[in-house]
Design a protein that fits this description.
The structure is a homodimer.
Chain A (H helix, E strand, L loop, with lengths): L12 H19 L1 E3 H8 L3 H13 L3 E4 L3 H4 L9 E4 L4 E8 L3 E8 L4 E8 L6 H17 L5 E9 L2 E2 L6 E4 L4 E4 L1 H13 L5 E5 H12 L8 E6 L3 E7 L2 E2 L30 H6 L16 H10 L2 H26 L3 E4 L1 H22 L2 H4 L3 E4 L6 H16 L1 H9 L9
Parallel strand pairs in A: 4-7, 7-11, 12-15, 15-16
Antiparallel strand pairs in A: 1-3, 2-3, 4-5, 5-6, 8-9, 9-10, 12-13, 13-14
């Protein structure tokens, strides 16, 4: 299954070299910096091979080497190991997150450094063309200040189901998008504004939040995780056995539209009684009303909870039970090590509701499965999703550093300085 | 990730040889028989290497070579390719399936041939010790008739959550088992009765049904599948991106205990309103009553459905809607290519209910996700689960043929004839 069998299929030194360069760059990217000694240990290669690989990445403009800062070496004996770190202004990506009320745009360098940031408030959910053009405008502005040598990719997050095959948005109920070629439009628009031709990848917001938390946040080192993202809707990203849950077309993990109540409220997806509508809409007055002035759904829920009185107590009970039921389902379905709550859920909703929710979770989940499952908060806060979009954009470079650079060299007009 | 990097880690010809032997044996096992030409094509190895590998497996007593039957070669030009097939009476496994009302025991040969079969009716759910001993007694009887050279493993299926780590049954509500070291007892009991020391693996019944359907049944070639097993309870096995969904401890995929109705009936798992209890118990009279004479839950449901009258119509509607809601959730959560219904669900329940269920599924699932998801029936019928247990038992041999045989040679008293 995917193994390289030496000799059997004519795979040779080129594959090995690509694999090793990718592994080395992956270490630098994950940590921001590393040392030759650490790389030698982790990759189990000899020092001269490591030297050659580092040299190649230096020549490609991706990393730099330097002596570590004095305080890191004081008291040690012998020559300190050279530090290998991502070269600032070398390879960068652009990342965007379109949600109902705002657009986040980031410039992120190799190693995860944020090189530029813009957040645009939106008066109403944008259509796909407007969102793509606004992203391109904003990205062009960000790139104008100290542009990087090369933009190796663009990652875009949307609250909806995305077709893995072509990056089109199949359905984003909270944006009102249906079968939208959002990625294509963003690529075209970005080229018009910057002259750069860059690969654009699109993915579901919660899947990307999970990706970022897994690389740099609350889920580092875990193999089985459910990440929940509550902004305007309720999205889920699932890691199972170390693999992201995608399903056949990339649509899997729509946990917000898991039906939990046959007599529940109508949901914006067209069904009723979904976890999303029962958890979040239960705090809303009937009739169901899309309040465009609310910052996000968690704020709305909290406004209702905070209003006091009889309705509030009933609302709190119903909300707690519905939220707990969905959490219990996550445990029964995915047997995770942890459920990671995204920023708004963790920062605002959980402190207000945890004492009500947790006893229900204990009651709903089979005891044998409940033990050892932790509910924890995002470590990246509001940035989880957009940082995940950046990781998505870096993925091809991290798989084949020289191949991606070779492909980019011919497609971006700004000359790369060496 | 898991790739063998030639030269970099000292992996050498031994690894390659093991890998190739395993691949060859896998082809023979999956098809029952293959040809040298087919193996050469599929493994992309040269003919002399294939010859050496086949020779090794022949010598190990696992396969035989022969000229294909005349009718298969008539009209062809040139020397026919030698057929390679599993050697009858060579390596076998024992498989067992403990459910509420019966115990199935199979002897299965390499290539999937059933070499012996026994089904024992149970008056009531057995305790773990009784079940293990009854399995061992029955297996010993089956082995007494023309015993194989070697029993390479035992696979056991139970309707419950199984700890991957040690094969103990964490919780099987319908059997009333709680933290039961079932596999250990079965291994000990089998050794007492047969003198053979054999590795015993235990797994969830629906997970094993999926494994069998994926290897030889309705899910061959698919990467994303939900398999539903409805006997006394409602179990699920999920394949996602080509990997079985297991979760951290092996408990994942408890789809029957996904909560779908906050005001639903009590479930045997201790919660209420689970998909299992809403779908299956909705056909039962209240108060909830465990009828030990019913063959399985699907029979019970059908008895109720067949009883006619006002109650039956209401029951049918409620059952259809609840079943559809769970199916819709499977689509939203796993984005599968197909939902495969196990024997009883497909043979009995689906013909009676499909016309009621499918319109609800269409209504509950987001249109973008509904298209292209097929509901189909098991191809292995009542044998899915126990054949999956056999596949579980074969897995170590298929991973490292010579290694497993070497380990077995010292632990089984019957001498192997060559």
């Amino acid at each position: 299954m995917g193994e390289v069998v030496a000799g059997a299929r004519g795979r040779g030194t080129e594959d090995v070299r690509r694999h090793n360069l990718a592994a080395l760059l992956g270490l630098v990217h994950a940590g921001g910096a590393t040392t030759r000694a650490e790389v030698t240990r982790q990759l189990e290669l000899n020092r001269s091979t490591i030297g050659g690989l580092v040299g190649t990445l230096v020549e490609a403009g991706l990393v730099v080497e330097r002596l570590p800062a004095a305080d890191a070496t004081s008291g040690r004996v012998g020559r300190p190991s050279l530090e290998v770190r991502a070269r600032e202004g070398g390879a960068e990506v652009l990342a965007g997150y379109v949600d109902v009320h705002e657009l986040q745009v980031l410039r992120v360098g190799l190693g995860g450094t944020v090189a530029g940031r813009r957040t645009i408030a939106l008066a109403s959910p944008p259509d796909p063309e407007t969102a793509a053009d606004l992203f391109a405008d904003t990205a062009a502005d960000l790139l104008a200040v100290g542009p990087p040598d090369v933009v190796v990719g663009v990652g875009l997050a949307v609250p909806g189901t995305v077709r893995t095959e072509d990056g089109s948005v199949a359905y984003a109920p909270n944006l009102g998008w249906d079968d939208a070629p959002f990625g294509d439009r963003a690529a075209k628009s970005l080229t018009e504004r910057t002259g750069r031709r860059v690969r654009v990848d699109v993915a579901n917001d919660a899947d990307l939040g999970l990706l970022a938390e897994h690389r740099r946040g609350a889920a580092v080192g875990l193999t089985d995780v459910v990440y929940l993202c509550g902004t305007y809707g309720l999205g889920g990203g699932v890691l199972t056995g170390g693999h992201p849950l995608t399903g056949k077309r990339g649509f899997a993990g729509e946990v917000g539209h898991m039906g939990v109540d046959p007599d529940g409220r109508p949901c914006r997806c067209g069904s009723r009684g979904c976890w999303e509508s029962e958890t979040l809409a239960s705090a809303w007055a009937q009739p169901f009303d899309l309040d465009e002035n609310a910052a996000d759904i968690v704020d709305l829920v909290l406004q209702r909870l905070g209003s006091g009185g009889v309705v509030s107590r009933r609302t709190r009970d119903k909300l707690s039970r519905a939220f707990a039921r969905g959490l219990a389902n996550m445990v029964h379905l995915f047997d995770p090590q942890a459920i990671v709550l995204g920023d708004g859920l963790w920062r605002d909703l959980w402190p207000a509701l945890a004492d009500d929710v947790l006893p229900w979770v204990d009651r709903f989940v089979m005891p044998a499965m409940r033990a050892g499952v932790e509910v924890r908060g995002s470590a990246l806060g509001r940035d989880s999703t957009v940082l995940g979009a950046a990781e998505l954009a870096f993925a091809p470079l991290l798989d084949d550093p020289l191949g991606v650079l070779a492909g980019q060299a011919s497609s971006q007009s700004p000359a790369r300085s060496s």
